[in-house]
Design goal:
14 helices; four-stranded antiparallel β-sheet; binds ligand TLP; globular; 339 residues; 41% helix; 18% strand; Aspartate Aminotransferase, domain 1; alpha/beta; Aspartate Aminotransferase, domain 2
Length: 339
């Protein structure tokens, strides 16, 4: 199977497994796991933040960030396509008692003007705008990345209006590889970042939340309340450290393979609206009467997995476990499809 369902599907490489087996571990609830501690320090340091917190998932790091940055009846400003709104089960309302103020953009990339216009005036009868969330890269938007300049401008609005800025950086290294620049440059513009190790970086499990010492101290309490305090989690943290040391530069390869898929799709008569491909995600629409159910069934029968991402929309994601040859085969399968 050529599995293009998501970049979450990767299996640990032999080198990663060796690093996991060799990990020194302890009970992380007592902060006695040296490998978890090392991963948290490494992530915080990379992005120029004071502290980090290792969590089981990107959903948990995002949800903890929402909880710590807001109070009930507050509102978070984010794109309508953002993961915190679309794919976290409405957790913002459940966990934090807050609402969302959704901005519509073509590809999920906000601008300072749009954010500023969405900030509510301070009337008693309105929700209070206290937080902005940006997603870099934006998954549902097709994996587009923010320029550092845009993040700076959004940050300036947040400072002016007294809002916190959280970055859903599930694929922040894809963004950095695509746009260039250093993690700390982005880190300097945001109050907290959720960094996923289990997406393009290829670790089996885990995300790290980074922020100020005070923010992470509170986040640690919320993680425990959510049931996310892990014990000998160093085996997983070791995979994350290995991924950060070995799997960042190679993301460019995934971007090249995504580009090949997109270039092929652009030639096919039954495809429309291919979102601009900048990283490892390819999103496009099927022209009616082709439906995702029929198309995905065809793909599966020919050894390719992809997913439906809307009524007419398909997503394909490239990653560590799909080689250039496999993309070649997937391209042949796409070319052979007749609507
Ligand atoms: N995204 C998954 C699905 O939930 C859609 C995927 O296959 O892409 N932020 C962003 C931008 C994400 O894309 C994801 C996962 C998360 C957060 C949540 O991460 P996990 O799955 O670790 O909870």
């Amino acid at each position: 199977m050529i599995n293009l369902l998501s970049d979450t599907v990767t299996k640990p490489t032999p080198g990663m497994l060796r690093a996991m087996m060799a990990a020194e571990v302890g009970d992380d609830v007592f902060r006695e796991d040296p490998t978890v501690n090392a991963l948290e320090v490494k992530c915080a340091g990379l992005f120029g933040h004071e502290a980090g917190l290792f969590c089981p998932s990107g959903t948990m790091t995002n949800q903890i960030a929402l909880k710590v940055h807001t109070r009930p009846l507050d509102e978070v400003i984010c794109d309508e396509m953002s993961h915190i709104f679309q794919y976290e089960v409405g957790g913002y309302a459940f966990n934090s008692g807050i609402g969302v103020n959704l901005i519509r953009t073509p590809y999920g990339i906000l601008s300072a003007d749009l954010v500023e216009a969405a900030v509510r005036p301070p009337y008693d009868w309105l929700p209070r705008s206290t937080l902005v969330v940006i997603e870099n890269t934006c998954n549902k938007g097709g994996g587009g990345a923010y320029s550092l300049e845009t993040i700076r401008e959004i940050h300036a609005v947040c400072l002016k209006k007294g809002l916190a800025l959280h970055l859903d950086g599930a694929r922040i290294f894809n963004a950095l590889v695509a746009k260039g620049g250093k993690p700390a440059d982005i880190g300097a513009e945001v109050d907290s970042i959720s960094i996923c190790l289990s997406k393009g970086l290829g670790a089996p499990v885990g995300s790290v939340l980074v922020g100020s010492r005070a923010f992470i101290a509170e986040a640690r309490r919320v993680r425990k309340a959510m049931g996310g305090g892990m014990r000998q989690a160093g085996y997983l943290a070791a995979a994350g450290i290995y991924a950060l040391d070995n799997h960042v530069e190679r993301l460019l390869e995934d971007h090249t393979q995504a580009r090949r898929l997109a270039d092929t799709l652009a030639e096919l008569s039954w495809v429309e609206n291919i979102r601009p491909v900048e990283t490892n995600i390819v999103i496009f629409d099927l022209k009616p009467p082709t439906t995702p159910a029929v198309f995905l069934d065809y793909l599966t029968k020919h050894g390719v997995k992809a997913s439906a991402f809307g009524p007419q929309t398909i997503r394909m994601v490239t990653h560590l476990d799909v080689s250039s040859d496999m993309i070649g085969q997937a391209i042949a399968v796409l070319r052979a499809y007749s609507a």
